[in-house]
Amino acid sequence: xxxxxxxxxxxxxxxxxxxxxxxxxxxxxxxxxxxxxxxxxxxxxxxxxxxxxxxxxxxxxxxxxxxxxxxxxxxxxxxxxxxxxxxxxxxxxxxxxxxxxxxxxxxxxxxxxxxxxxxxxxxxxxxxxxxxxxxxxxxxxxxxxxxxxxxxxxxxxxxxxxxxxxxxxxxxxxxxxxxxxxxxxxxxxxxxxxxxxxxxxxxxxxxxxxxxxxxxxxxxxxxxxxxxxxxxxxxxxxxxxxxxxxxxxxxxxxxxxxxxxxxxxxxxxxxxxxxxxxxxxxxxxxxxxxxxxxxxxxxxxxxxxxxxxxxxxxx
Length: 315
Fold this sequence. Notes:
- The chain has 315 residues and is of the alpha/beta class.
- The chain has one domain (4-312): Aminopeptidase.
- The protein is 34% helix and 22% strand.
- The strands form two sheets. A nine-stranded mixed sheet has the order 7-1-4-6-5-8-11-9-10, with helices on both faces.
- Helix 4 (170-180) packs parallel to helix 7 and helix 6 (218-230) packs across helix 8 (286-306).
- The longest helix is centred in the last third of the chain and has 21 residues, at 286-306.
- The chain is globular and about 50 Å long.
């Protein structure tokens, strides 16, 4: 087991501060097609500046890779949660960056534990995107802070990408990792943690779901649930098979990294404000967010200590 006192390094105060900064004030949205009054850069670029500043404060050197993206169009004839529609070829193109940092391993730096979170909000409507996916963004940002102060055996890498614009920029990072021959031993996409039904929110349930889409990912997902029990995190953790190979985890699976899972609040996703303007930070349960971050920290450190055998054979 890892030292359980390390879990106390996760700060609810920082999670809440980042969440409200990036999905309420000063940044109500995180997209290329919205610029705040008086600003010269779009709100996604402002988001990137905030992320880079937080990472640099922890002595990381963020690497930004710029890609060209378009905003989705809005099609209100479709089901309400899926109003996004393909842009026209002559719609404006914008620059959007992937941001990556890594804490190099001290003993086996070639083995990589990969964390992912998309940082943008919906480009086709004005939504704060607090659950989707500011919650995952701030969890990974907090994990990066904690990991920066540790000396891992294996390399732990964080990708902050874009999924609510097109094309999805996680694809480029995954393909680049495959082209380099990166030895990624586990991929964890953190998306919409704490997102759940209105009934579960009203009941104060602390939920966490781990999905897998490949047989290689299943042991990793089951190990995540076992960690929640082992460290008594007070989370209701479900392990679910997600048939579609999509989202940012799917981009890494398609690139050949099949030990991949997604961390999410519920599956099938049950948040009534999914992709809507009502996805505001006031609806996010910060305690749930903190416990989900603690689970991810447990999982990272257990895999760092034991490698692939940690979840395929047990430490």
